[in-house]
Specification:
- The complex is a heterodimer of chains A (246) and B (249).
- With 246 residues, chain A is mainly alpha-helical.
- Chain A has ten helices and no strands.
- Chain A has one domain.
- Chain A is 84% helix and 0% strand.
- In chain A, α3 runs antiparallel to α4, α4 packs across α8 and α4 packs antiparallel against α10.
- The longest helix of chain A has 41 residues.
- Chain A starts with a helix and ends with a helix.
- Chain B contains ten helices and ten strands.
- In chain B, the strands form two sheets. Chain B has a six-stranded mixed β-sheet with strand order 6-7-8-3-9-10, sandwiched between helices.
- In chain B, β9 and β10 form a beta hairpin.
- Classes of the chains: A mainly alpha (246), B alpha/beta (249).
- The interface between A and B is medium-sized, with 16 and 23 residues.
Chain lengths: 246, 249
Protein backbone atom coordinates (compact mmCIF):
# COMPACT_ATOMS: atom_id res chain seq x y z
CA UNK A 1 0.00 0.00 0.00
CA UNK A 2 2.76 2.44 1.03
CA UNK A 3 4.74 1.39 -2.04
CA UNK A 4 1.75 2.11 -4.29
CA UNK A 5 1.22 5.53 -2.73
CA UNK A 6 4.94 6.27 -3.15
CA UNK A 7 4.71 5.32 -6.84
CA UNK A 8 1.66 7.54 -7.35
CA UNK A 9 3.51 10.41 -5.65
CA UNK A 10 6.58 9.84 -7.82
CA UNK A 11 4.37 9.81 -10.92
CA UNK A 12 2.82 13.19 -10.10
CA UNK A 13 6.17 14.75 -9.17
CA UNK A 14 7.55 13.51 -12.49
CA UNK A 15 4.53 14.87 -14.37
CA UNK A 16 5.02 18.29 -12.78
CA UNK A 17 8.54 18.36 -14.23
CA UNK A 18 7.31 17.02 -17.58
CA UNK A 19 4.89 19.88 -18.17
CA UNK A 20 7.51 22.61 -17.69
CA UNK A 21 8.36 24.96 -20.55
CA UNK A 22 10.69 23.39 -23.15
CA UNK A 23 14.23 24.78 -22.99
CA UNK A 24 14.63 25.13 -26.73
CA UNK A 25 11.55 25.13 -28.95
CA UNK A 26 13.37 24.20 -32.17
CA UNK A 27 14.73 21.02 -30.53
CA UNK A 28 11.35 20.35 -28.91
CA UNK A 29 9.46 20.50 -32.23
CA UNK A 30 12.08 18.28 -33.84
CA UNK A 31 11.51 15.74 -31.05
CA UNK A 32 7.74 15.90 -31.62
CA UNK A 33 8.20 15.14 -35.33
CA UNK A 34 10.42 12.17 -34.47
CA UNK A 35 7.88 10.86 -31.96
CA UNK A 36 4.98 11.33 -34.39
CA UNK A 37 6.81 9.03 -36.73
CA UNK A 38 7.81 6.52 -34.05
CA UNK A 39 4.59 6.42 -32.02
CA UNK A 40 2.00 7.37 -34.64
CA UNK A 41 2.95 6.51 -38.21
CA UNK A 42 4.61 3.25 -37.19
CA UNK A 43 1.32 2.10 -35.66
CA UNK A 44 -0.84 2.70 -38.74
CA UNK A 45 -0.14 -0.74 -40.24
CA UNK A 46 -1.12 -2.78 -37.20
CA UNK A 47 -4.23 -0.63 -36.62
CA UNK A 48 -5.38 -1.20 -40.22
CA UNK A 49 -4.82 -4.97 -40.11
CA UNK A 50 -6.52 -5.51 -36.74
CA UNK A 51 -9.45 -3.18 -37.48
CA UNK A 52 -10.15 -4.76 -40.87
CA UNK A 53 -10.37 -8.29 -39.55
CA UNK A 54 -12.19 -7.43 -36.35
CA UNK A 55 -14.74 -5.42 -38.37
CA UNK A 56 -15.31 -8.45 -40.58
CA UNK A 57 -15.62 -10.86 -37.66
CA UNK A 58 -18.03 -8.58 -35.76
CA UNK A 59 -20.35 -8.49 -38.79
CA UNK A 60 -20.22 -12.27 -39.30
CA UNK A 61 -20.88 -12.99 -35.61
CA UNK A 62 -23.71 -10.43 -35.45
CA UNK A 63 -25.23 -11.92 -38.56
CA UNK A 64 -25.12 -15.44 -37.10
CA UNK A 65 -26.74 -14.23 -33.88
CA UNK A 66 -29.46 -12.31 -35.74
CA UNK A 67 -30.71 -15.07 -37.98
CA UNK A 68 -34.35 -14.46 -37.00
CA UNK A 69 -36.20 -13.45 -40.22
CA UNK A 70 -38.22 -10.84 -38.31
CA UNK A 71 -35.07 -8.81 -37.64
CA UNK A 72 -34.13 -6.57 -40.59
CA UNK A 73 -30.70 -7.15 -42.12
CA UNK A 74 -29.66 -3.52 -41.76
CA UNK A 75 -29.43 -4.07 -37.98
CA UNK A 76 -26.24 -6.03 -38.64
CA UNK A 77 -24.60 -2.89 -40.08
CA UNK A 78 -25.93 -0.82 -37.21
CA UNK A 79 -24.57 -3.25 -34.57
CA UNK A 80 -21.20 -3.38 -36.30
CA UNK A 81 -21.00 0.41 -36.46
CA UNK A 82 -21.85 0.91 -32.79
CA UNK A 83 -19.49 -1.86 -31.62
CA UNK A 84 -16.62 -0.40 -33.61
CA UNK A 85 -17.17 3.29 -32.88
CA UNK A 86 -18.16 3.06 -29.25
CA UNK A 87 -15.86 0.37 -27.96
CA UNK A 88 -13.59 -1.51 -30.30
CA UNK A 89 -11.75 1.37 -31.96
CA UNK A 90 -11.20 3.69 -28.97
CA UNK A 91 -10.71 1.10 -26.22
CA UNK A 92 -9.46 -2.12 -27.80
CA UNK A 93 -7.13 -0.38 -30.22
CA UNK A 94 -5.76 1.73 -27.35
CA UNK A 95 -5.18 -1.46 -25.34
CA UNK A 96 -3.26 -2.86 -28.31
CA UNK A 97 -1.32 0.41 -28.57
CA UNK A 98 -0.57 0.18 -24.83
CA UNK A 99 1.23 -3.06 -25.70
CA UNK A 100 3.02 -1.75 -28.75
CA UNK A 101 3.75 1.89 -27.91
CA UNK A 102 3.80 1.53 -24.11
CA UNK A 103 6.41 -1.23 -24.06
CA UNK A 104 8.44 0.68 -26.63
CA UNK A 105 8.44 3.86 -24.52
CA UNK A 106 9.24 2.05 -21.25
CA UNK A 107 12.08 0.03 -22.74
CA UNK A 108 13.55 3.02 -24.60
CA UNK A 109 13.55 5.30 -21.55
CA UNK A 110 14.51 2.42 -19.24
CA UNK A 111 17.54 1.60 -21.38
CA UNK A 112 18.52 5.26 -21.40
CA UNK A 113 18.28 5.23 -17.60
CA UNK A 114 20.44 2.13 -17.03
CA UNK A 115 23.07 3.23 -19.56
CA UNK A 116 23.30 6.64 -17.82
CA UNK A 117 22.07 8.54 -20.89
CA UNK A 118 19.43 10.26 -18.75
CA UNK A 119 22.10 11.26 -16.23
CA UNK A 120 24.13 12.65 -19.13
CA UNK A 121 21.14 14.76 -20.25
CA UNK A 122 20.62 16.07 -16.71
CA UNK A 123 24.30 16.89 -16.27
CA UNK A 124 24.29 18.95 -19.44
CA UNK A 125 21.66 21.09 -17.71
CA UNK A 126 18.70 19.77 -19.72
CA UNK A 127 15.38 18.88 -18.06
CA UNK A 128 15.39 15.19 -19.02
CA UNK A 129 11.71 14.59 -18.24
CA UNK A 130 10.50 17.45 -20.39
CA UNK A 131 12.97 16.64 -23.16
CA UNK A 132 12.18 12.91 -23.33
CA UNK A 133 8.60 12.51 -22.14
CA UNK A 134 6.64 15.62 -23.13
CA UNK A 135 7.12 15.14 -26.93
CA UNK A 136 5.87 11.54 -26.58
CA UNK A 137 2.74 12.62 -24.70
CA UNK A 138 1.94 15.43 -27.14
CA UNK A 139 2.57 13.25 -30.19
CA UNK A 140 0.34 10.45 -28.90
CA UNK A 141 -2.48 12.80 -27.85
CA UNK A 142 -2.33 14.42 -31.29
CA UNK A 143 -1.96 11.30 -33.44
CA UNK A 144 -3.99 8.61 -31.67
CA UNK A 145 -7.36 10.24 -32.63
CA UNK A 146 -6.31 9.92 -36.31
CA UNK A 147 -5.44 6.27 -35.72
CA UNK A 148 -8.83 5.69 -34.17
CA UNK A 149 -10.62 7.38 -37.11
CA UNK A 150 -8.61 5.13 -39.45
CA UNK A 151 -9.56 2.14 -37.29
CA UNK A 152 -13.28 3.02 -37.43
CA UNK A 153 -13.20 3.48 -41.21
CA UNK A 154 -11.21 0.33 -41.95
CA UNK A 155 -13.31 -1.64 -39.44
CA UNK A 156 -16.46 -0.64 -41.29
CA UNK A 157 -14.88 -1.67 -44.60
CA UNK A 158 -13.95 -5.03 -43.03
CA UNK A 159 -17.53 -5.31 -41.80
CA UNK A 160 -18.86 -4.71 -45.29
CA UNK A 161 -16.67 -7.48 -46.73
CA UNK A 162 -17.57 -9.78 -43.83
CA UNK A 163 -21.22 -8.99 -44.44
CA UNK A 164 -20.88 -10.07 -48.07
CA UNK A 165 -19.61 -13.44 -46.91
CA UNK A 166 -22.79 -14.06 -44.89
CA UNK A 167 -25.26 -12.62 -47.36
CA UNK A 168 -25.75 -9.05 -46.09
CA UNK A 169 -26.26 -6.83 -49.12
CA UNK A 170 -24.30 -3.60 -49.56
CA UNK A 171 -27.51 -1.60 -49.48
CA UNK A 172 -28.59 -3.14 -46.15
CA UNK A 173 -25.15 -2.70 -44.65
CA UNK A 174 -24.84 0.95 -45.75
CA UNK A 175 -28.38 1.69 -44.53
CA UNK A 176 -27.49 0.10 -41.20
CA UNK A 177 -24.29 2.03 -40.62
CA UNK A 178 -26.09 5.32 -41.42
CA UNK A 179 -29.25 4.52 -39.47
CA UNK A 180 -29.93 6.76 -36.45
CA UNK A 181 -26.28 7.85 -36.36
CA UNK A 182 -25.31 10.24 -33.57
CA UNK A 183 -22.19 12.30 -34.36
CA UNK A 184 -21.69 12.60 -30.58
CA UNK A 185 -20.49 8.98 -30.61
CA UNK A 186 -17.41 10.13 -32.51
CA UNK A 187 -16.79 12.93 -29.99
CA UNK A 188 -17.14 10.37 -27.19
CA UNK A 189 -14.73 7.95 -28.87
CA UNK A 190 -12.13 10.62 -29.58
CA UNK A 191 -12.36 12.06 -26.06
CA UNK A 192 -11.66 8.60 -24.67
CA UNK A 193 -8.79 8.16 -27.11
CA UNK A 194 -7.07 11.38 -26.03
CA UNK A 195 -7.33 10.37 -22.37
CA UNK A 196 -6.01 6.87 -23.15
CA UNK A 197 -3.13 8.32 -25.20
CA UNK A 198 -2.09 10.37 -22.17
CA UNK A 199 -2.34 7.33 -19.89
CA UNK A 200 -0.32 5.06 -22.20
CA UNK A 201 2.55 7.52 -22.73
CA UNK A 202 2.81 8.97 -19.23
CA UNK A 203 2.45 5.68 -17.32
CA UNK A 204 4.92 3.89 -19.62
CA UNK A 205 7.37 6.78 -19.39
CA UNK A 206 7.09 6.69 -15.59
CA UNK A 207 8.04 3.00 -15.46
CA UNK A 208 10.91 3.56 -17.88
CA UNK A 209 12.21 6.67 -16.12
CA UNK A 210 12.41 5.00 -12.71
CA UNK A 211 14.06 1.79 -13.92
CA UNK A 212 16.90 0.66 -11.68
CA UNK A 213 19.47 -2.03 -12.42
CA UNK A 214 20.15 -3.63 -15.79
CA UNK A 215 18.62 -5.31 -18.82
CA UNK A 216 16.33 -7.59 -16.76
CA UNK A 217 14.87 -4.57 -14.98
CA UNK A 218 14.23 -2.87 -18.31
CA UNK A 219 12.15 -5.91 -19.27
CA UNK A 220 10.31 -5.78 -15.94
CA UNK A 221 9.57 -2.05 -16.41
CA UNK A 222 8.32 -2.70 -19.92
CA UNK A 223 5.94 -5.42 -18.71
CA UNK A 224 4.71 -3.26 -15.81
CA UNK A 225 4.12 -0.37 -18.20
CA UNK A 226 1.83 -2.49 -20.39
CA UNK A 227 -0.02 -4.11 -17.48
CA UNK A 228 -0.60 -0.91 -15.50
CA UNK A 229 -1.51 1.27 -18.47
CA UNK A 230 -4.00 -1.41 -19.63
CA UNK A 231 -5.62 -1.59 -16.19
CA UNK A 232 -5.80 2.21 -15.90
CA UNK A 233 -7.30 2.41 -19.41
CA UNK A 234 -10.03 -0.06 -18.41
CA UNK A 235 -10.81 1.88 -15.22
CA UNK A 236 -10.98 5.19 -17.11
CA UNK A 237 -13.06 3.56 -19.84
CA UNK A 238 -15.65 2.70 -17.23
CA UNK A 239 -15.57 6.20 -15.68
CA UNK A 240 -15.65 8.04 -19.02
CA UNK A 241 -18.45 5.89 -20.42
CA UNK A 242 -20.51 6.58 -17.34
CA UNK A 243 -19.75 10.30 -17.49
CA UNK A 244 -20.15 10.82 -21.23
CA UNK A 245 -22.92 8.42 -22.24
CA UNK A 246 -25.27 7.98 -19.31
CA UNK B 1 38.09 24.79 -8.08
CA UNK B 2 35.59 22.52 -6.36
CA UNK B 3 35.54 22.61 -2.57
CA UNK B 4 33.81 19.85 -0.67
CA UNK B 5 33.21 20.34 3.06
CA UNK B 6 31.97 17.82 5.63
CA UNK B 7 29.85 15.71 3.29
CA UNK B 8 27.72 12.96 4.82
CA UNK B 9 25.55 10.52 2.90
CA UNK B 10 23.53 7.52 4.03
CA UNK B 11 21.64 4.96 1.93
CA UNK B 12 18.97 3.00 3.85
CA UNK B 13 20.70 3.73 7.15
CA UNK B 14 24.07 2.66 5.78
CA UNK B 15 26.73 5.43 6.04
CA UNK B 16 28.32 5.61 2.58
CA UNK B 17 30.22 8.90 2.96
CA UNK B 18 31.35 10.19 6.32
CA UNK B 19 32.64 13.74 6.80
CA UNK B 20 34.33 14.09 3.42
CA UNK B 21 36.29 17.34 2.92
CA UNK B 22 38.56 17.91 -0.05
CA UNK B 23 39.62 20.59 -2.53
CA UNK B 24 39.74 19.70 -6.22
CA UNK B 25 42.23 22.08 -7.79
CA UNK B 26 42.06 23.66 -11.27
CA UNK B 27 44.58 22.66 -13.93
CA UNK B 28 45.23 19.38 -12.16
CA UNK B 29 43.86 15.88 -12.53
CA UNK B 30 42.35 15.22 -9.12
CA UNK B 31 41.90 11.51 -8.53
CA UNK B 32 39.47 9.77 -6.20
CA UNK B 33 40.68 6.24 -5.63
CA UNK B 34 39.38 3.37 -3.55
CA UNK B 35 37.98 -0.13 -3.67
CA UNK B 36 34.68 -0.92 -5.36
CA UNK B 37 31.86 0.09 -3.01
CA UNK B 38 34.01 2.57 -1.10
CA UNK B 39 31.80 5.53 -2.08
CA UNK B 40 33.72 7.00 -5.05
CA UNK B 41 30.83 7.05 -7.52
CA UNK B 42 28.45 8.31 -4.82
CA UNK B 43 30.81 11.24 -4.16
CA UNK B 44 31.03 12.02 -7.88
CA UNK B 45 27.25 11.90 -8.29
CA UNK B 46 26.84 14.13 -5.23
CA UNK B 47 29.26 16.63 -6.79
CA UNK B 48 26.91 17.10 -9.75
CA UNK B 49 23.70 16.82 -7.77
CA UNK B 50 22.49 13.48 -9.09
CA UNK B 51 22.29 12.37 -5.45
CA UNK B 52 21.20 14.68 -2.65
CA UNK B 53 23.56 14.79 0.31
CA UNK B 54 22.49 14.51 3.96
CA UNK B 55 24.74 17.33 5.17
CA UNK B 56 27.79 19.29 4.01
CA UNK B 57 28.65 21.91 1.42
CA UNK B 58 29.87 21.84 -2.18
CA UNK B 59 31.29 25.00 -3.71
CA UNK B 60 32.13 25.58 -7.37
CA UNK B 61 34.63 28.42 -6.90
CA UNK B 62 32.59 30.86 -4.83
CA UNK B 63 29.19 29.43 -5.76
CA UNK B 64 27.57 27.21 -3.16
CA UNK B 65 26.08 24.36 -5.20
CA UNK B 66 24.25 22.83 -2.26
CA UNK B 67 22.20 26.00 -1.71
CA UNK B 68 21.17 26.35 -5.35
CA UNK B 69 17.68 25.70 -6.71
CA UNK B 70 17.25 23.14 -9.51
CA UNK B 71 17.17 25.86 -12.19
CA UNK B 72 20.44 27.37 -10.93
CA UNK B 73 21.99 23.90 -10.71
CA UNK B 74 21.01 23.27 -14.35
CA UNK B 75 22.71 26.53 -15.33
CA UNK B 76 25.89 25.60 -13.48
CA UNK B 77 25.86 22.14 -15.04
CA UNK B 78 26.35 23.79 -18.43
CA UNK B 79 29.90 24.53 -17.19
CA UNK B 80 30.46 20.87 -16.30
CA UNK B 81 31.53 18.13 -18.68
CA UNK B 82 30.99 14.57 -17.52
CA UNK B 83 32.53 11.39 -18.82
CA UNK B 84 30.55 8.33 -17.81
CA UNK B 85 31.89 4.82 -17.29
CA UNK B 86 30.01 3.47 -20.31
CA UNK B 87 30.27 6.66 -22.36
CA UNK B 88 26.51 7.37 -22.10
CA UNK B 89 26.35 8.49 -25.72
CA UNK B 90 22.82 8.80 -27.12
CA UNK B 91 22.59 5.64 -29.18
CA UNK B 92 20.06 7.00 -31.69
CA UNK B 93 22.34 9.90 -32.60
CA UNK B 94 25.49 9.87 -34.71
CA UNK B 95 28.86 10.94 -33.29
CA UNK B 96 28.35 14.41 -34.78
CA UNK B 97 24.83 14.77 -33.34
CA UNK B 98 26.01 13.61 -29.93
CA UNK B 99 28.72 16.26 -29.74
CA UNK B 100 26.45 18.89 -31.26
CA UNK B 101 23.63 18.23 -28.78
CA UNK B 102 24.77 20.56 -25.94
CA UNK B 103 25.68 23.23 -28.51
CA UNK B 104 22.19 23.04 -30.02
CA UNK B 105 20.54 23.17 -26.61
CA UNK B 106 22.49 26.03 -25.10
CA UNK B 107 24.02 28.20 -27.82
CA UNK B 108 22.67 30.21 -30.71
CA UNK B 109 25.46 29.14 -33.04
CA UNK B 110 24.74 28.54 -36.72
CA UNK B 111 24.93 25.01 -38.12
CA UNK B 112 28.30 25.88 -39.65
CA UNK B 113 29.71 27.16 -36.37
CA UNK B 114 28.47 24.09 -34.54
CA UNK B 115 29.98 21.79 -37.14
CA UNK B 116 33.32 23.61 -36.84
CA UNK B 117 33.24 23.08 -33.08
CA UNK B 118 32.34 19.39 -33.50
CA UNK B 119 35.21 18.88 -35.91
CA UNK B 120 37.58 20.72 -33.57
CA UNK B 121 36.57 18.49 -30.64
CA UNK B 122 36.85 15.34 -32.74
CA UNK B 123 40.23 16.46 -33.96
CA UNK B 124 41.31 17.08 -30.35
CA UNK B 125 40.53 13.46 -29.44
CA UNK B 126 42.11 12.14 -32.67
CA UNK B 127 38.86 11.00 -34.25
CA UNK B 128 38.67 12.94 -37.48
CA UNK B 129 36.05 11.98 -40.08
CA UNK B 130 34.04 9.75 -37.75
CA UNK B 131 31.14 12.24 -37.72
CA UNK B 132 28.50 9.98 -39.21
CA UNK B 133 29.12 6.78 -37.27
CA UNK B 134 26.65 5.58 -34.67
CA UNK B 135 27.85 4.71 -31.14
CA UNK B 136 27.16 1.03 -31.87
CA UNK B 137 29.77 1.19 -34.65
CA UNK B 138 32.54 2.43 -32.34
CA UNK B 139 35.13 0.48 -30.33
CA UNK B 140 35.37 0.95 -26.55
CA UNK B 141 38.28 3.39 -26.83
CA UNK B 142 36.60 5.39 -29.59
CA UNK B 143 33.40 5.54 -27.56
CA UNK B 144 35.29 7.06 -24.62
CA UNK B 145 37.02 9.56 -26.89
CA UNK B 146 33.69 10.67 -28.40
CA UNK B 147 32.35 11.04 -24.86
CA UNK B 148 35.35 13.25 -24.03
CA UNK B 149 34.73 15.28 -27.20
CA UNK B 150 31.10 15.78 -26.14
CA UNK B 151 32.18 16.68 -22.60
CA UNK B 152 34.55 19.42 -23.83
CA UNK B 153 32.30 20.77 -26.60
CA UNK B 154 30.91 23.51 -24.35
CA UNK B 155 34.37 24.54 -23.05
CA UNK B 156 33.67 23.28 -19.54
CA UNK B 157 35.33 24.69 -16.44
CA UNK B 158 34.94 21.38 -14.68
CA UNK B 159 35.42 17.86 -16.03
CA UNK B 160 34.20 14.87 -14.05
CA UNK B 161 35.20 11.36 -15.15
CA UNK B 162 33.76 8.15 -13.73
CA UNK B 163 36.24 5.34 -14.30
CA UNK B 164 37.22 6.62 -17.75
CA UNK B 165 39.36 3.64 -18.72
CA UNK B 166 37.36 0.74 -17.34
CA UNK B 167 37.04 -2.07 -19.85
CA UNK B 168 39.86 -0.76 -22.04
CA UNK B 169 43.16 -2.44 -22.90
CA UNK B 170 46.19 -0.94 -21.08
CA UNK B 171 47.46 0.94 -24.14
CA UNK B 172 44.10 2.58 -24.91
CA UNK B 173 43.59 3.25 -21.20
CA UNK B 174 46.85 5.22 -21.04
CA UNK B 175 45.83 7.10 -24.20
CA UNK B 176 42.56 8.16 -22.55
CA UNK B 177 44.35 9.09 -19.30
CA UNK B 178 46.87 11.23 -21.16
CA UNK B 179 44.12 12.88 -23.18
CA UNK B 180 42.27 13.83 -20.00
CA UNK B 181 45.46 15.24 -18.47
CA UNK B 182 46.37 17.21 -21.62
CA UNK B 183 42.88 18.74 -21.86
CA UNK B 184 42.93 19.59 -18.15
CA UNK B 185 46.23 21.45 -18.42
CA UNK B 186 45.48 23.02 -21.80
CA UNK B 187 42.18 24.63 -20.68
CA UNK B 188 42.96 24.90 -16.93
CA UNK B 189 39.94 22.75 -16.12
CA UNK B 190 39.20 21.36 -12.65
CA UNK B 191 39.19 17.67 -13.42
CA UNK B 192 37.97 14.96 -11.05
CA UNK B 193 38.71 11.37 -12.05
CA UNK B 194 37.19 8.48 -10.21
CA UNK B 195 39.28 5.33 -10.68
CA UNK B 196 40.60 2.13 -9.15
CA UNK B 197 43.10 1.60 -11.93
CA UNK B 198 46.63 1.92 -10.52
CA UNK B 199 48.10 2.58 -13.97
CA UNK B 200 45.94 5.71 -14.14
CA UNK B 201 47.04 6.75 -10.68
CA UNK B 202 50.71 6.46 -11.62
CA UNK B 203 50.16 8.12 -15.00
CA UNK B 204 48.07 11.19 -14.14
CA UNK B 205 47.67 11.35 -10.34
CA UNK B 206 48.51 14.96 -9.55
CA UNK B 207 46.29 15.15 -6.48
CA UNK B 208 44.84 11.98 -4.99
CA UNK B 209 42.19 11.23 -2.37
CA UNK B 210 41.98 7.64 -1.14
CA UNK B 211 38.51 6.75 0.14
CA UNK B 212 38.20 3.86 2.53
CA UNK B 213 34.87 2.90 4.13
CA UNK B 214 33.36 6.25 3.15
CA UNK B 215 36.16 8.31 4.71
CA UNK B 216 39.08 10.12 3.07
CA UNK B 217 41.80 7.94 4.54
CA UNK B 218 44.76 9.52 2.79
CA UNK B 219 45.51 12.38 0.39
CA UNK B 220 48.60 13.41 -1.51
CA UNK B 221 50.24 13.05 -4.93
CA UNK B 222 51.56 9.99 -6.75
CA UNK B 223 55.15 10.19 -5.43
CA UNK B 224 53.88 10.41 -1.85
CA UNK B 225 51.56 7.49 -2.51
CA UNK B 226 54.45 5.18 -3.41
CA UNK B 227 56.32 5.99 -0.20
CA UNK B 228 53.32 6.05 2.13
CA UNK B 229 53.23 3.67 5.08
CA UNK B 230 49.44 3.88 5.44
CA UNK B 231 48.37 0.22 5.76
CA UNK B 232 44.93 0.47 4.08
CA UNK B 233 46.38 2.52 1.23
CA UNK B 234 49.25 0.07 0.72
CA UNK B 235 46.86 -2.89 0.78
CA UNK B 236 44.87 -1.22 -2.00
CA UNK B 237 47.69 0.20 -4.12
CA UNK B 238 50.07 -2.71 -3.88
CA UNK B 239 47.48 -5.47 -4.13
CA UNK B 240 49.00 -7.01 -7.24
CA UNK B 241 52.28 -8.96 -7.32
CA UNK B 242 53.71 -6.54 -9.85
CA UNK B 243 53.16 -3.50 -7.66
CA UNK B 244 54.43 -5.38 -4.57
CA UNK B 245 57.68 -6.09 -6.40
CA UNK B 246 57.90 -2.49 -7.56
CA UNK B 247 57.44 -1.28 -3.98
CA UNK B 248 60.22 -3.59 -2.75
CA UNK B 249 62.58 -2.47 -5.49
Amino acid sequence: MIKSLKSIGEYFIMMRKVVSRPQKYSVFFKQIILELDKIGLNSVGIVIIISFFVGGVVTIQTSINMSNPILPKYLIGLATRDSLILEFSPTMICLILAGKVGSNIASEIGTMRVTEQIDAIEIMGVNSTSFLILPKIISAMFFFPFLIIISMSIGLVGGWIGGHAVGVSTADYLYGIKYDFLPYYITYALTKTIVFAFIITSVSAYFGYFTKGGAINVGVSSTKAVVYSSIIILIFNFILTDLLLS
Amino acid sequence: MIIVENIHKKFDGNQVLNDISFTFEPGKTNLIIGESGSGKTTLLKILIGLYDLDSGTIKYNERVFTEMKLKQKRQLRQEIGMLFQGGALFDYMTVEENIMFPLTMFTNQTEEEKLDRVNFCLNRVNLENKNHLLPSELSGGMLKRVAIARAISMNPKYLLCDEPNSGLDPKTAILIDNLIQEITQEYNITTVVNTHDMNSVMEIGEKIAFIYNGVIWWEGHKEELINSDNKQLNDFVFASELFKRLKKS
